[in-house]
Design goal:
six-stranded mixed beta sheet; alpha+beta; four-stranded mixed beta sheet
Length: 257
């Protein structure tokens, strides 16, 4: 299946679709069924002249099929993790819902591909069945430049792991990102006594380096895990999709987040 996925580039919205939630029964795999499903979806979009871009975050089993039909993989998302330590006597701040109207637009980000954080899209995602089935926290910066982060709890048995699905600040200031990461840590420790780890997956090839610097200085360390990313231009598009430094991608950009 393909979902309309609101990606922006250079300050303008793109007609983008994300391939996801597709599966072929075990007894019918290896017969090209998934490839035909991919092509059928692309052909439908082509017929309507309605697609600038197709994206996908495939599992290893379907990655090859996408590459065979012209998709490319300019990057993968790298997982980082940080152990959480609860200090005796420390009060950890609580966070309420982020303000949906906060303007996080910055001229330094306009040459990048990024998933829209519009209120309309946020509301649509919340309406998806199961989206709110696990605890989540919206964190909005309380000092310095405007910023926002979205966190969800990942089920790991008795161990509490929270994931930063996306994080944005105005501009690319490492200090602002570090302050927002500190708020995320405090919010998780306040909300979940079993919280043991905080993780994030992002594109490490991004030209804007402020977030990566903040992660390193906040004791996040890379793991061996990655999330595959694939992309294909629409029938009349010539977007610079092969440049990994232009993609601001996070875990929350996947339809099954």
């Amino acid at each position: 299946s393909y979902y309309r996925w609101p990606i922006t580039y250079d300050g303008r919205p793109l007609r983008a679709y994300q391939s996801g939630r597709s599966i072929v029964a075990a007894g019918y795999r290896g017969r090209g069924i998934f490839t035909r499903l991919l092509l059928a979806g692309e052909e439908a979009a082509h017929a309507e002249q309605s697609a600038d871009l197709f994206i996908g975050f495939p599992v290893a089993a379907s990655y090859g099929a996408l590459i065979k039909v012209g998709w490319t993989s300019p990057l993968s998302l790298q997982w980082f993790v940080r152990p959480l330590v609860r200090l005796p006597g420390r009060r950890h701040a609580t966070e309420g819902p982020a303000t949906e109207t906060t303007d996080l637009t910055s001229p330094t980000l306009k040459r990048e591909f990024a998933v829209s954080d519009s209120p309309e899209f946020a509301a649509w995602r919340r309406s998806i069945a199961g989206y709110d089935a696990t605890p989540r926290i919206d964190v909005e910066s309380t000092a310095g430049p405007a910023g926002r982060a979205l966190l969800r709890r990942r089920e790991r048995g008795p161990v509490g792991e929270w994931t930063i699905g996306s994080i944005r600040t105005v501009g690319d200031d490492a200090a602002a990102y570090r302050a927002l990461l500190r708020q995320c840590i405090d919010a998780v420790l306040h909300a979940d006594r079993r919280a043991a780890f905080l993780s994030i997956a992002l594109n490490t090839e991004l030209k804007q380096r402020g977030l990566l610097t903040a992660l390193r200085r906040s004791a996040f360390v890379p793991t061996h895990k990655r999330i595959l990313f694939t992309v294909k231009n629409g029938p009349v598009s010539h977007l610079p999709i092969g440049d990994p430094g232009r993609w601001r991608m996070f875990r929350a950009d996947i339809d099954t987040w």
